[in-house]
Amino acid sequence: MIDLVIRSRRTVTPEGERPAAVAVRGERIAALYDYAAPLDAAADVDLRDLALLPGLVDTHVHVNEPGRTHWEGFAAATRAAAAGGVTTLLDMPLNSLPPTVNVAAFEAKLRAARGQCHVDVGFWGGAVPGNVKDLGPLRERGVYGFKCFMSPSGVPEFPPLGPAGMRRAMEEVAAIGGVMVVHAEDPALLSEPGGPTYREFLDSRPGASERSAVAQVARLAAETGARAHVLHVSSAECLDVLAAAQADGVAVTAETCPHYLTLSAEQVPEGVTAYKCCPPIRSGANRDRLWEGLARGVLSCVVSDHSPSPAELKVPDFAAAWGGIASLQLGLAAIWTEASRRGYGLADVARWMSANPASMAGIPRKGGIEAGNDADLVAFDPADDNLVDAALLHHTHPVTPYHGHRLRGAVLTTWLRGRPVDGEPHGRLLLGEQ
Hints:
The structure is a single chain. With about 425 residues, the protein is α/β, with parallel strands linked by helices. It is built from 11 helices and 17 strands. It has helices at about 75-85, 105-115, 130-140, 165-175, 200-205, 205-225, 240-245, 260, 285-295, 330-340, 345-360, and strands at about 1-15, 15-25, 30-35, 40-45, 50-55, 55-60, 85-90, 120-125, 125, 145-150, 180-185, 230, 250-255, 300, 375-385, 405-415, 420. Strand 7, helix 2 and strand 8 (about 120-125) form a beta-alpha-beta unit. Helix 3 packs parallel to helix 4 (about 165-175) and helix 6 packs parallel to helix 7 (about 240-245). The protein is globular. The model has no long low-confidence stretch (mean pLDDT about 95).
């Protein structure tokens, strides 16, 4: 018995783009057939020349619930995710209150999320000073790994790890499994902005700070045997350090984000603090080098780092505003706009935004259109042309640097485990290996 067939002449599989009919039984992909194969199914959807993508896996999302739900909560964030073709996300352990740094806080997070999610949601734990003893129990309870900062996080309840604390935490991660995901900026090379402008903010967080921190992460991964993943790489100065470590067999991977690949410092309008994030958006030449790093596989994942806040925290200037970009709903279109212009295809986008993040985090049955995987699927019109109106987004607060930008590509339907996401939350809470 087949419950659903979705046909597309542009089905994006792990082997590339091809005509296919995707047969769904229950919540899983049962098989792939020829596009025109006669199949007896309860429902048969023919997308014709529209693309069929695997649901995106976004492993870097700040939902902020409980405690700062007025910034962003599970209901709004997961609606935005589904509208943007994301069917699985991993929630960061901050900026919720309490942060997810022990099992009691994780249980509070699970209670807050239950029944609200429109997509499947998993969780990172946090590694902060003094909680090494909590990492094992958190891993056993189901977090996929641990997030830490090397520089101040922006919230006092989630302090950074110093060198000794970082080593001890990575030794523990090596012993218990999972991955350490690291906000890598060297605090010794950061400074307070000298004034309110974007240039002064950018100068306060130089690429050298990222490069120094990434070198420290790679060295600790080599020495402890822990898997490490560098978050939101914005500086191309990191690429040779990462490439050398990877060539030496060190278990270190890295991601970047749509805003670093599609925006540039030169185009940031003065005073428009929706562009502020940490680390910052850098030059157009730097952006080109990040694309080269992605093409070479030095950077393997493209994820949102969706970090929203109320509009009143994005004032008055680049020195004082909250640093975070809301783009969960827009990442696919933003990346497709730039990737297609640079000659990349939908199969590349699916690898960067679905298969590789799922593999990095160790989320089974996600990340690709193949038999046995969850039927997480996205009907996508790659030729659609949209002018972004922030007021129409599902994020809690309509603040985004993409407002007024013209993007290519539109998500038409998102299926989560074979069922259309249609307003009734049916996402599951995912727990890692226990």
